[in-house]
Amino acid sequence: MPSPNSYDSLTRVGPGTPMGGLMRQYWVPAMLSSELPRPDCPPVRVLLLGERLVAFRDSGGRVGLLDHRCPHRGASLLHGRSEGGGLRCAYHGMLLDVDGRCRDRPAEPPGGELGDGVRATAYPCRERGGVVWAYLGPREVPPPLPDLEANRLPEGRWQVSAILRECSWLQGLEGDIDTAHLGFLHFGSERAEDQEPGTFRHYVLQDRAPRYALLDTDYGSMYGAYRAAGPGRRYWRIAHFLFPFYTMPPSGLLGHQVVARAWVPMDDTHLMHFSMSATPAPGDSLTPSIPDARPSAARRDWYGRFRLDADESNDYLLDRERQARDEDYSGIPGVHTQDQAITESMGPIVDRTREHLGTSDAMVIRVRRRLAAAARALEDEGTTPPGVDGPEAYRQRSGGVILDEDADWIEATGELRRAYVTHPGLDRSVTGGFV
Q1: pLDDT at position 228, please?
Q2: Of the candidates 395, 369, 139, which has an alpha carbon nearest to the alpha carbon of residue 246?
Q3: I need a labelling partner for 200 at 20 to 30 A (CA). Which of 30, 36, 99, 318 fits?
Q4: Quick check: helix, strand or coil at residue 315?
Q5: Same domain, 90 and 157
Q6: What is the per-residue pLDDT across 352-374, written as a single tens digit (0 to 9) for each?
Q7: Nearest to 247 by CA among 362, 356, 150, 181
């Protein structure tokens, strides 16, 4: 496999590619449950890991995910009708169930050549926490779903969203594990002296060049970005990369924040960003983790789901006057849109051989190496990638915390990083509204 800096081998996800093979070992977020709002509603295009698929909800409420080409003559099932317990092709009426089996062939006479063995390529689906998960892998019995706390919250306690980005999945993910840009792209126009002393917001703006500590884990990698927080104290921003494409950002308060983000490859040059988080508690003034960008009107093609009004054609709604007045460092409204503008501006797949990486890129370098090593081990030795058979490894939390200067950051935060634990005594005001 080429060097991680070539980027090519890490971004290609189609069938038969090393990274595509790694991705297919896991359950993958494919769509939101809300995209199929009722039984027998219209089917939906889904582009996933380079495969063109059609999703539907059958008469019994089950979700099916099929190759969009009918196994009879190859007509797209997108034009089909969801009815009678399956998806019926509009060309000759062939009815396919969620397992891809042919249940009816109305255009074929009894005893005709088109037998009962005709099947469409179908992928198992499961729903949890507002997300439709799909398994595109080789196992007859799929592995467990990852035990992501943000995807296992009680009804009414979770929120989920999806946003399309026009760049490789790894560019999107790397933006989420790059904590150094926070004090510039998102908060570059704010000053430390204007913030409440002793808060996360104050410390980030006081020192915009944190130091880093990293640790490889059984789910991926973890980092802590730290800076001084008064005499004998440090403010730590602790975050995770979890195989194969999840992040838990260091925003919010460690022990309180419940969030997971998935940077799911649609193909080599487009991703679907899924954000899963707990709903804000009553009286919680902090901004929720759901992206603050507004989807545009639906476009009827394979890239039509969850597109944004803000894009390259309108400079992501950049306001040069606000930027000139230093009211907004980038001039682009909204944290998510700012991130999207930057990652898409690099090109669909950026040439990483032209990079000049520094200390602040330590986590980016580590994640590339971990991905390359896991893909190589799977391809060369058949080694199962991290987390596939260990759903409990995903029981993590991320966020900010203030520790004594001489504290071991891993030991001191062990309990706060555990999922499904309640910490009623945490004071969220220490964040200074900083997410």
Answers
A1: 95
A2: 395
A3: 318
A4: helix
A5: no
A6: 888 899 899 999 999 999 999 99
A7: 150
Quote the CA–CA distance of 24 and 384 in Å, as a whole number: 11
Q: Is residue 3 over pLDDT 50?
A: no
Label residue 286 by pLDDT band (50, 70, 90): very low
The whole-model pTM stands at: 0.94
Residue 92 is encoded by which pair of tokens? Answer: 């000759």
Give yes or no: residues 309 and 355 share one domain. Answer: yes
CATH, residue 74: 2.102.10.10
User: Which residues are registered as beta bridge partners of 136?
Assistant: none
Could you write out the DSSP letters of every residue in 377-403?
A: HHHHH-PPPTTTT-GGGG-B--EEEEE
Q: Which residue range is the domain that position 115 belongs to? A: 29-135
Question: pLDDT-derived band of residue 190, with 50, 70 and 90 as boundaries?
Answer: confident
Residue 39 in tokens: 């039984």
CA angle 305, 336, 266 (to 5 degrees): 35
Q: Which amino acid is at 236?
A: W
Compute CA distances 375 → 5, 16, 139, 296, whole Å: 15, 12, 17, 36
Q: How far does CA 388 lie from the centroid of its chain?
A: 17
pLDDT in tens, 223-273: 999 999 999 999 999 999 999 999 999 989 999 999 999 999 999 999 999
